[in-house]
Design a protein that fits this description.
This protein has eleven helices and 18 strands. The chain is an alpha/beta fold. Helix 4 (170-182) crosses helix 5 (197-209) and helix 7 (241-251) packs parallel to helix 8 (266-274). It folds into two domains: 6-154 and 335-367, Medium-chain alcohol dehydrogenases, catalytic domain (Quinone Oxidoreductase, Chain A, domain 1), CATH 3.90.180; 175-312, Rossmann fold (3-Layer(aba) Sandwich), CATH 3.40.50.720. The two termini are 22 Å apart. Helix content is 28%, strand content 26%. Strand 17 (340-344), helix 11 (349-357) and strand 18 form a beta-alpha-beta unit. The longest helix has 13 residues, at 170-182. The protein binds zinc ion (2 copies). One zinc ion binds at residues 45, 47, 66-67, 169.
Length: 371
């Protein structure tokens, strides 16, 4: 381990709604409780695009990317349970593992885990005198990161890095919405609105959990075909709320037990609630722009005994759930590799954003040299 740090290539966002630029930044070595990881794969997620577009506030300059996997290169003082050479997935909630929420299976809500830990003057990444922030404490659109040890989860070596990266966000979020938020039971029915990486993960999760009927909805027929291969029993091509509602009601006239909204748009959220049967639950998984509002009819909600559930990171406890998802992948029950539509370089993330924004891509994964 060097004491004066190294240089890493990273995609830096300097201004909202401007393209990110690839440049070399100085990175200091890991300090007490921190780990240095060489990235091998980093998924491109809608939350990165939301931040780049200014839908969410952000400090600048920043390195985006929060869905990463790689190899541990160096350890700071006092780091235990992790070794140099370990293969790891990064968690964008650095849960402490000891607080009341962590101990009760709600690590995603750990108060310590949601602090973005790196601000001036301690930022690991620097451009001259200026600190460069890491999105959600990670910033995986970079060759290497220094992150808290609590954000690092070792995984089996036989899980490929591109698959592991997706377990860090899309797959945990989508399957967690099914397992933790909805608590879907065998024989239940479900509709999944939106078949990007998160929606397709919800489809796979619903199959693993034993859903009888899984209706996939998207505007893109190719993504619907993939949803069918991953476990959807029915497909609805819906480009308007009315088209979606008519298509789903044709399959489930009395409504569904669970509706998963993965788009993050108020009209789709409204549709999710409207499609519920008696005692159904709508899980709001997609993250909308700041300030979005939704109108509900509380009498209808009460009379029909329905629930609207907010879902953040799929209610994931990273240490436990990443291990489970790796096991399911290795057993062939969760074919995460099928979600990957494009393997790209760091210089192609902007193009991936464009194609993700208009629904043409399921999941792009940046693959780094050595992967
Ligand atoms: Zn994400
Ligand atoms: Zn905690």
């Amino acid at each position: 381990m060097t004491t004066d740090g190294i240089t890493v290539r990273a995609l830096v966002l300097d201004a909202i709604d401007r393209p990110m630029r690839l440049e070399s930044l100085a990175m200091r070595p890991p300090r007490t409780g921190e780990v240095q990881v060489a990235l091998r794969a980093s998924g491109v997620c809608h939350s990165d695009l939301r931040t780049r577009s200014g839908d969410w506030g952000s400090e600048l300059p920043i390195v985006l990317g929060h869905e990463g996997a790689g190899v541990v290169e160096a350890l700071g003082e006092g780091v235990g349970g992790i070794s140099v050479g370990d293969h790891v997935v990064l968690a964008w909630v650095a849960s402490c593992g000891r607080c009341r929420r962590c101990a009760s299976g709600k690590a995603w809500a750990c108060p310590a885990g949601n602090d973005v830990p790196f601000h001036e003057p301690s930022a690991p990444l620097r451009r001259g005198d200026q600190g460069v922030a890491q999105f959600l404490g990670l910033g995986t659109f970079a060759e290497r990161v220094v992150v808290p040890q609590t954000a690092v989860v070792p995984i089996p070596r036989d899980v490929p890095f591109d698959v592991a990266a997706l377990i860090g966000c899309a797959v945990s979020t989508g399957t967690g919405a099914v397992f933790h938020n909805a608590r879907l039971r065998p024989g239940d029915s479900a509709v999944v609105l939106g078949c990007g990486g998160v929606g397709l993960s919800a489809v796979m999760g619903a199959r693993v959990a034993g859903a009888h009927t899984i209706i996939a909805v998207d505007v893109n027929p190719e993504k619907l075909d993939l949803a069918g291969e991953l476990g959807a029993t029915h497909r609805v091509l819906g480009s308007t709320p009315a088209e979606t509602a008519a298509g789903v009601r044709h399959i489930a006239p009395d409504g569904v037990d669970h509706a998963f909204e993965t788009v993050g748009h108020p009209s789709t959220m409204r549709t999710a609630i409207d499609l519920l049967g008696m005692a159904g639950s709508a899980v709001l998984v997609g993250m909308p722009a700041e300030g979005t509002t939704l109108t509900i009819d509380p009498l209808e909600l009460a009379a029909r005994g329905q629930r609207i559930i907010g879902s953040n990171y799929g209610g994931t406890s990273p240490a436990a759930d990443f291990a489970t998802l790796c096991k399911l992948y290795l057993a062939g029950r969760l074919p995460v590799d099928r979600l990957i539509s494009h393997r790209i370089g760091l210089d192609e993330v902007e193009q991936a954003f464009d194609e993700m924004a208009d629904g043409r891509r399921a999941r792009s994964v940046v693959v780094f040299d050595g992967a």
